[in-house]
Design a protein that fits this description.
This protein is of the alpha+beta class. The protein contains one helix and seven strands.
Length: 136
Amino acid sequence: MKLVHWRPFGELRTLRREMEHSSSRSFGDTSSPRLVLKEWIPWVDISETKDKLLIKAELPGLEAKDINVSISGDILTIKGEKEKEKEEEERDEHYHYCERYCGFFRRSFRLPVAVQCDKVEESFKNGVLKITLPKA
C-alpha cells in the first residue's frame, strides 16, 4: 500500500485562488482580501497535438535561471522561486491592496502519454515558459 501525503490546507488555498481568478474574470475585480501565502501557484495550460504535448506556464517576474523543469517517469515538475522585489521602503507607505505573489512554487503533472525526454524543448519569453514534449 502506498502512502500519499495529503495537504488539506494546500488544496484549500489552490481552490480559493482558482475561485478568485474565476470570479474576477466573470465579475471584474473584487476587493476581497486574499490569503497570505508562502507559496504561490502559477497558472498552467497543457495541450496535445498528434505528435507532441505543449505546456505553457505563466511565470511573471521570473528569469529562466529561477526555474527548474524535471521529468521523473511520467511526472513533469516545474519549480522555482519568485523573490520579493527589493524596493526602497518608505516609512509612511501603507498598502490598500496587495495581490503580487512571491515565494517558492512547485507544480507537478502526470503526463497523459509517454514522451521522448531527450528531445524536450523549453523556451522562456515575456514571463511565459513553453515546454514542448515530443510523444514517444
